[in-house]
Amino acid sequence: MDKYVKRLTRDEVEQERKAKRPRLKQATLQSLKGVIDVKRVLVLKEKLACKYSTEKQILQCLTEIQSGQNLPVQILTETGIGRVIGPLRKHSNETISSSAKSLVDQWKAMIQDLPIAPVLNKDKNKKLSLLVQTSGANDHVRKRAVDMFRANMLSSGNDKVDTERAKEWEKAIYVQNDMKIDKEYKTRVRRKVFDLKKGSSSSSKDNC
Questions:
Q1: Is the dihedral of CA 81, 87, 92, 96 positive or negative?
Q2: What does the alpha-carbon distance between residue 100 and residue 83 come to, in Å, rounded to a whole number?
Q3: What is the spatial distance between Cα 83 and Cα 77, in angstroms, rounded to a whole number?
Q4: pTM for the structure as a whole
Q5: Burial call 30-64: b when 16+ CB within 10 Å, e when fewer
Q6: CA distance to 158, 162, 203, per residue, from 198 (Å)
Q7: What single-letter DSSP state applies at residue 132?
Q8: 68 φψ region: left (φ > 0), alpha (ψ -120 to 50), beta (else)
Q9: Per residue in 73-117, pLDDT tens?
Q10: How far apart are CA 99 and CA 63, in angstroms?
């Protein structure tokens, strides 16, 4: 009977074994049920709080929060995102105010439905569950951006005021870039420096 049996080479055996092996998909934080991407929550909070954010950007942030998972009370408290969204209920844009009211009402109902009032962590130094730190490796890049803005902006005659404005511009760019130092961040910084050098209307209006 052996002459009717097809003998496979080692390579063919290995290929057949790999073909039968189930392919596993790499899980991400966003794909894991019940897992909240805390850093993303903080990014959205900073975008909503940034005075340079447009109405369109604010709406995008609110929509992302609404379409995502319900945020636990602890995350609402320790990130402080609720304190940023609350004032938006009085925004002049009806869509923004409506979205903000909807979120706040949703969170209030969630807290009221809890069987026991949550014990909130009052020690700011022990927020281990939500600790999101940056390594500081890119601090010199951000400082360099501030220095470039400061060197090319029209002086107000007050060094402190000018420095604070330059820091605000840099922070706005950093936040709008999802708090990442990458090629896009550097491109935005160069564009801002170019506007400052040209004395364009966009720079005079503090747009970033």
A1: positive
A2: 11
A3: 9
A4: 0.66
A5: eeeeeebbbbbbbbbbbbbebebbeeeebeebbee
A6: 21, 18, 9
A7: -
A8: beta
A9: 888 888 899 999 999 999 999 999 999 999 999 888 888 776 654
A10: 8
